[in-house]
Amino acid sequence: MKLETLLENVKYECVSGSLDQEIKSLSRDNRKAEPGCLFICTEGARFDTHDAKVLQALSELGAAAFVVEKDVDYDGPAAVIRVADTRIAGAYIYAAWYGEPAKKLTMIGITGSKGKTTTAHMLAGILRAWGRKVGLIGTNGVEYGYVSRELANTTPDYDELQMLLHDMLEDGIDTCVLEVSSQAVKKHRVEGIRFDIGIWMNIQTGDHVGPNEHETFDDYFNCKAELLKQSRIAIVHADGPYAARLLETIGKPAILFGESEDADYRAKDIENVFDEATQTPGIAFTVEKRATKQAERFFVNLPGDFNTWNAVAAIAASDLMGSSLYAMKEALSAVHIKGRDDMVYRGRFQVCVDFAHNGESTWAHLRAMREYRPKRLICIFGPDGNRSIGRRLGMGEAAGTLADLAIVTSGHNRWESFEQILHDTETGLRKAPNPNYIAIKDRAEAIRWALENAREGDLITIIGLGHEHWQEEMGVKRHWNDEEFVLKTLGELGLL
Predict the structure, then answer these.
(1) Which CATH number characterizes residue 391's domain?
(2) pLDDT band for position 44 (cuts 50, 70, 90)
(3) Which residues, in sequence order, are CB contacts of 419 under 8 Å at separation 6+?
């Protein structure tokens, strides 16, 4: 593709070299660059590829052009293209390279501090039941056709994202449901994508605000609001404390869902239900559509009031797309999501794996687990290192309050010691009225101990890592999956 063609949607200055040349590949990683490539320079936290030595090495390799956002020390044959922000320019360049795939797909973006993954899977399930060919990208990875694999980020960086959208089109996919994190907006991963529908679930203060994520809550809020600005139709949870501020920020009408009488999709008569035959809890609720006054009863086979709002958001989006009522009811009554209230074993006791990794999600998850009516609820958890201390305080208080036994273990310790994380977590545990807890540093030992000492009627829930297949300690990632280890250990104990 011609360099000039790749730059059609980019504001730029050609500092040197010719635009009339063929580009053979794109790269933003100097270790993966090829001869004839267009290389996009990026200033990262630890390394800046604007460096003169990097440019010289790439020039000697045969790079055809560089996209830069600052003055560079380079005088060679490759073209130098100056832009205001290489991340923004890169998103448009990769979109052009892959043929603007987002414009050919129905794009649905979902954002929220909590609920993105569950809502995305519910919505994808409805649309598939209706007959749409759906690709799903988010925390649990990428899923479409026969493709299923993990991703490094909830929302991939723009180069990988555009490639995935292109591959989906090639595979016959017509709709993409994309979880859009605040970091994705901040780092311009979804720059230039016009979403057909954008869904705002909620926002929490304190979470994702810190030196490694967003410096302020306002920055966090504005990044999440940006998705709705990029969307043709905005769907907003009206009951949240920041809903009014959000509507003012995006400056356009939105479709509202919630319990409010003003909601376009209003949920009411919410009821926790329990199937005695299968010993399984769920939720039933009625959704009234304000435009038609039509009301329908729905059932979701997951416990927890919060899943009502995940489901209603999915109902609203699929209804606006024209989905059948049958598809909605069929999909919502049979939801299964890896690492989300995921009952991986049901025998004389039960074992659940969940991704809850902060205070609020731990409170919500443990309340939901209580709906299984366990004789004892045992919670194994390990708060993340190098994240807000508020997370470990909240998780500790929730586990100390709602679990009959809490077991503190290692999660993604990252660069912090287990001892420091445990110290902070114990502060949260001691806020509970009568906390009963032990600490077992090694996650494998903690899970094995709980399984070996489980009593009939117990429910053991293992939270924090959910679907993930890795664990990070002292900067080293090793293979780990809670469900895999549980099933392996149960087999060794003769329980499978």
Answers:
(1) 3.90.190.20
(2) confident
(3) none
